[in-house]
Every structure is written in C-alpha cells, then in structure tokens.
C-alpha cells in the first residue's frame, strides 16, 4: 500500500525553483500519509517531480543507484541503464515476480530482493510500456523516461488501485487520491452539472474515468496514459474478449478451482503476518480455507477477523436481500479452520462518526454506512495486522446478485442496482432534479456503458443480456466496491488483497455460460463446486447474505438528528438542493429497508446518511458550483 503523486512538464525546468517544488512534493506526501506511514521519498528533476509514501508490507529492497535529485528513503525507484535514466513511483504489488525476474536479470543485477517497483521499472526499460501486459498484480504506477521527457501512468486491469490526474496551467499532475491534487496552488474542488449528476443521479458509483470534480479524471482500468512533448494519449492494454466457451463442465470446475487457489496462494505471500476477513459466507470462507491450509504447511495458524453490529440479534430483520446473521456461520468456520479469531463489534455511534471519516478517505461521498462501517472495521484490524485477504468481487464474476436471478430486475433496461430514481429524488427540490435531468443523465450513462460491451457474435436473448449485465457489474458495481475496499483499508493502514479480482479468473469466467455458473438454478453454483472439499457443506451452500448493516432504530435517530441540524443551519451547502417540506416528512416516516436505491443495502436510512456525507463533503472540501 502506497500513496503516489507527481507533476510533469516537458519544457519547464523545475530545478530553477528547487526548494519550492520540493516543498510541493512534501505536501503531496503529507496528504497521502495514511496510505503509507512507514517510508517516504521524493524525487525532483528538470521535468519531473515524484512523491511516494509507503506502508511497509514487504522488504524495502536495496537502494538502486541514485541519480541527482533524490531525497533519502527507498522510494521512488531510480535506475540507469545503457546511459539512460528512469524513475518510478508505484502503489501496489506484482504477484508473478518470480516468473518475470529471469528475463530482467541483465537489468536487475545481483540476487535481490527486488521491490515490485524495481521489477516493473526494469520491465519498462527492457520492453517499454507493453511490459505491463506481463504483470499480474494490482498497481498504479508512474514511470518517468528522463531522456525522452515522457511520463507513463499505468493502472491495473480491474482498477483495484486508484490513480487520478488533472492539469494546472501547463503542469500535468497525478496522485493516488484527489486530496493530493488539491494541495497544488490553483487546483480547486469545482462541481459542474455533470459532477452534480455523478453524485445525485448515479452515485455512489462513478462513470469510469471521471473523478466528479471538473477537469479531474482517473486513469481507466486496463489503460495507461502516455504523456510526452508530443501530447497525451490513452492506450487500452487489456480488455475482455468474448469467445465461445469450449471446456466441459467438469473441466470448467477444475480450472476455476485451480485459478482461485493459485490467486490466493500468490497473494498470501508477504513478509509480515497475513489475516483474512471472515463473514461466514462462501466467498470469504473459501479464501480463508485456502489460506489456513497453506499456512498450516508452514506450521503457522491463520488469524481471522469478523465484523458485527452491537446488539445485532436484537435489531436484525430478515429480508430477501439479507436472510440471516453472519455470526453463527462465522463460528462454524472458525472451528473448521482452527483460526485465531477476533470478533470486532461496531456501535451505532462508531458507524455514524465514521460516515465523515469515510468521506475524507474517498475525497467524495461514498456508500454511506455501508462504507463507514467497513472503514471502522479496517481501522480496527489495521491496529493488529498489515495485510488482509478478502472475499470481495466473487458476486460480480460468478453472478451472485439478485438482478441475475430475479426476472423483474433482470429485465430492466437500466442499471438494475440503481433503477429507482424516485428514491433518489425523495429529498430533493423538484426544480433541481428537473434542471439536472437526472433521468436523462442516468439513461445516457447507461446507454454509453452498454455500447462498450464486447459482445459475442451471434449471441442473443438472455445470453446477450447476461453478458451485458456481467460487463456492467465489473465496470460499475465491482469498481464501487473495490474503491470502498481500497480507501477504507488505506485509511485503516492495512493492505487489503482481493484474490477473486485476479484478472485470469475474470477473463476465464467472462466466457463461461450461465448454465455452468448457476447450474440447476443454484446461485454461484460454479464457485460452490470449485470449493468442494475445501469447506463444510453447510457453508458451501449457505444462502447468499450480503455485507451486514445495522437495523438499530437508535442509528436512524442519529441520522435524523443530523439531517435536522442541516436544515437548521443556513450555511449548510446542500440546502439549496433539498426540499424542506419533503425532508421533514421523510424524517418522521418509518424506515423502508425493502426498497434499495443503490445496490442491495442502500435504502431509506442510507439516503439520509448519503445526504449527510454530501453536505460534509461540500463543506470540508470547499466545493464550489460552476
């Protein structure tokens, strides 16, 4: 886990104001401190400035040959080869380093160890930017080719690591988080009509490549930017390819099982103790079982952590979305794994307070209490461990969500997890919603997303619709959850790994037909079959239950009180958008958990929490409307 940032200008000489720009690099580092509290460094040359703050979850590696302008610290990575100079900053990890090292031995001298950044930079030196196609990992990286005066920004295939960018005059800026960009003089948090639509009409999701604020962007997953004296280009180096699936069902189960186990084994490697998040569901339980088995081979015991709300048994209400509590299944898995287990219990006050910390973690409004409780959990685990493996992303690639199975959701011709626009407008002034054309923005965004689906020639009907739905899940729902995991883990000072998001699994599952993914109508049956022999049957075929949320009426009262404070404060920046009468009626109405407006869990109480986040965000970040 790291925070990276930098600036670039192919004609400006930053060394003419060396102290000024070194101070800017230090401001970058301070703003990204939560992503990397253990080590930091800066690099400044005529055309480039680089900053990195690093969480030490593996060896820092030997310091490479330094070139002029480097400060103390092991990052950035600096190399010289054949008379040319290169520099790199990187957030992330390369999981296939062993396979890559032999072909890089003429650049990486000696026996190592070599940091992931050193491997990536050596690969660039050997093959140029196309080397990124060989890397299996999660990364946001910037490579400076000094003699060519060129900058390359790389982002991993599925967007697990963030990388934002903007321009300030003629200076090109990039950073892991938006807050770092805002430390540059003249860069402001401006919100235009599209930005308002991003947060009100499709939020907490974001259109790929957009950063909500005007003139800010994010490198899209599977892409890299090439910036040089000749201009700026975006190159897509990875995309899903649709082809007929030719493996038998038995071979599909076997290959799926291998890919999952291989991804977990690769991501289990670390020089510090590793733990897992354990919910008692099939996804996290399978990851935990593989980890426990591998650690036992080394006579080590797995540490597991689970999350629950205070008095959850008292307040829990079963629904079609959330049929059961996790605790009984967690207990069964702990006994099965013989893990060193810790239950972390979150109070409603903890969750409410973390609503605002989660905005600062994202620099944007996010998934309300679905996000804040995860941040609280990551912070607690981060006090005990530095790396956690999680079960995120299995639902997206194996088809676990209700919109894959419920006809009324599957048949929708819009984002099925965000179809209820009426719920989004319930607190807003009618004139504001009409001026934004919220329905039109969501419709245009959906149509544009569908146009990008790599369809299989000749595919039609339900098969075509499911391919579209899987693509939208990967690009939208999964990205939202990956953002949540990355920012909350970073704020909690823990590196969260997501083995189900290994691109090889995603590529393979993309073409597996629905009849294999959900054989005999069993939700995620392919995943369950791939886990046979690794989990107890009771866990393997447990009915899906999503990430928990509280049903404590005391929490709803806190949200309502927070909303009333907004209404009573004439300086509240969100007031111009809210309809006071509609809001006051809403605050006295019973909570409606059965009508989610985003995903499965964001219903009426989460609308209040989201508005609280929006108001805090606009005030804290001095958001201006343009």
From TrEMBL:
Residues binding L-glutamine: 116
Gene3D superfamilies: Glutamine Phosphoribosylpyrophosphate, subunit 1, domain 1 (3.60.20.10), HUPs (3.40.50.620)
Alphabetized InterPro entries for the sequence: Asn_synth_AEB, Asn_synthase, ASN_synthetase/amidase, AsnB_N, GATase_2_dom, Ntn_hydrolases_N, Rossmann-like_a/b/a_fold
Swiss-Prot/TrEMBL keywords: Amino-acid biosynthesis, Asparagine biosynthesis, ATP-binding, Glutamine amidotransferase, Ligase, Nucleotide-binding
Domain of life the protein comes from: Bacteria
Domain Glutamine amidotransferase type-2 as annotated: residue spans: 2-230
Catalytic activity reported: L-aspartate + L-glutamine + ATP + H2O = L-asparagine + L-glutamate + AMP + diphosphate + H(+)
Pathway: Amino-acid biosynthesis; L-asparagine biosynthesis; L-asparagine from L-aspartate (L-Gln route): step 1/1
One GO molecular-function entry: ATP binding
Record-listed E.C. numbers: 6.3.5.4
Pfam families per the UniProt record, alphabetical: Asn_synthase, GATase_7
One GO term describing the cellular component: cytosol
Positions bearing the site annotation: Important for beta-aspartyl-AMP intermediate formation: 392
Any one Gene Ontology BP term: asparagine biosynthetic process
Similarity field: Belongs to the asparagine synthetase family.
UniProt name for this protein: asparagine synthase (glutamine-hydrolyzing)
Organism: Candidatus Lachnoclostridium stercorigallinarum
Phylogenetic classification of the source organism: Bacteria, Bacillati, Bacillota, Clostridia, Lachnospirales
